[in-house]
Structures are given as C-alpha cells and as structure tokens.
Amino acid sequence: MSTEILKMNQIKKAYYMGEEKQIVLNHINLTVNKGDFVAVLGPSGSGKTTLMNIIGCLDTPSSGEYILSNQKVDELDEQKLAVIRNKEIGFVFQQFQLLPRLNALQNVELPLVYAGVGEKDRRIRAKEMLVRVGLEDKLHNRPNQLSGGQQQRVAIARAMVTEPTILLADEPTGALDQKTGQQIMDLFHEINEEGKTIIMITHDKEIAKNARRIVHILDGQLREESA
Ligand SMILES: Nc1ncnc2c1ncn2[C@@H]1O[C@H](COP(=O)(O)OP(=O)(O)O)[C@@H](O)[C@H]1O
Ligand SMILES: [Mg+2]
Q: Is the CA virtual torsion 187, 192, 90, 108 positive or negative?
C-alpha cells in the first residue's frame, strides 16, 4: 500500500505585471507517495521554481488545492506556512546556501537551534548526519575549506537533520561538475533507499534519469513520463 504524502489538485499560479496576467502554473495535478523519488524536468522559464515554492510552502497558489501530510496548505497564512515548511520540508539548493562563518557541524545544527533542540542533542544529531553523508573528517571545516561536492553534502545533512517528510532539491547538481554531481545523485539514491521521499527540480535530462519517476513541466503543465 502506498501512502500519499503530497497531493495537488488543479493548482494554478498567475502573476500580474500591471494589467498583464501571466499564467505560470495551469491546473497542475500531482500526487507523490511516501518513498517516491520524483524529478520535475523542464527548461528555463517553464515554472519549475514557482512549482517548487508552492511544494515547499514558500508560496501559495492562486487557486486549487494543495495537501501535504494530510494538511490543507493552500489557504495558510505566512506564519502557518513557516511552521509546516519547517516540519515537512528539507531544502537543498543549487548554490548550497551555507553560512560562511559557521563550520559544517554548526551549519547542520542550525535548523535544530531554530527547532529548540538542546545543545548536546543537536551536536549528536548533526554529527551523525555528517557522518551519514561521508564528512566525518570535515566537521570543523568552514564552507570555503570544502569542495563544492562537500558543501552540497553539508547542505544535504542540514536538510535531513530535522527528519523532514520530503527532501526538496532545486537543481542540486547545477553548480557541480558532472562526476561530483553524479556522486550527489548516488547519495540521493541511498537516502531514497532508506525511505526518504525526494522531489528534485532539474533542467538536466541525465540528472533526472536518477529519479524513479520523471514528471515533465512545460508551459505550466505537467506530464508524467511512463516508466
Ligand atoms: N514573482 C514573479 N512575478 C512575476 N513573474 C514571475 C515571478 N516568478 C516567476 N515569474 C515568471 O514565471 C515564469 C516561470 O518562472 P520560474 O518558475 O522561475 O521558471 P523556471 O524555474 O522553470 O525557470 C517565468 O516566465 C517568470 O518570468
Ligand atoms: Mg528556476
């Protein structure tokens, strides 16, 4: 039995530039089950970031229904969005977005600081997660003392340390060379094998092939690639 953790019904997102209305997401339907590894593949300007922002509870749709872990997200205000976002979503970005003055351990601890986890506990959990991504000998290195691939591993550890329902990655290999990017995909495979649900946004067909499911986005509409 598959468990549904995300469902979008007829999601629409429009932007207004003065009088002009641009429909960026046009009646999107998407269901993601627990344990899925989904790639959303589309060219620049196709609406990927807009979709990611809605999936990640950073933005709300113009209309339609969005259900995440049995909660209706589409009508929440900023404050409630922040709560559900912190609990359900672990973000991984193209540019890593680590804090330069903090070492790897401190970067990974940060979401636990915000979650109110005590110092000793969060040190243990952050360390465990960094060991998990293969950085046990880099705990005290700052981002500029790490390679791009290592920085992305820290970012993945930071995204995972709160045990979110979904790991949501926007072009996670976009700033990496091909070999390093594939190593990050290998880590995603392992994380997914352990049961984590992953949604990955990419414009790169080869990177998308690492996922179990590929959903194409074009002109604001989704099309599932048959397996
Ligand atoms: N905040 C915004 N205001 C107005 N238009 C936007 C905004 N964000 C995105 N768009 C427009 O929506 C379309 C899709 O953008 P985006 O979701 O960033 O695509 P992608 O990530 O696939 O490149 C683009 O035409 C872009 O100009
Ligand atoms: Mg984008």
A: negative
Q: How far, in Å, is the centroid of ligand 1 from the Cα of 45?
A: 6
Ranges of each domain in the chain? 4-224
Closest Cα to atom 3 of ligand 1: 15
* Å from CA of 43 to ligand 1 middle: 12
Q: Which residues crowd ion ligand 2, with CB under 5 Å?
A: 48-49
For 23, residues 6+ apart whose C-beta sits below 8 A from its C-beta are: 12, 13, 14, 220
Question: Residue 166: CB partners within 8 Å, gap ≥ 6?
Answer: 5, 6, 32, 55, 68, 88, 89, 90, 197, 198, 199
Under CATH, to which class is 4-224 assigned? Answer: alpha beta
Q: What is the pLDDT of residues 186-203, one digit of tens each?
A: 999 999 999 999 999 999
- 49: closest CA among 213, 206, 223, 203? 203
The per-residue pLDDT for range 65-111, each reduced to its tens digit, is: 999 999 999 888 889 999 999 999 999 999 999 999 999 999 999 99
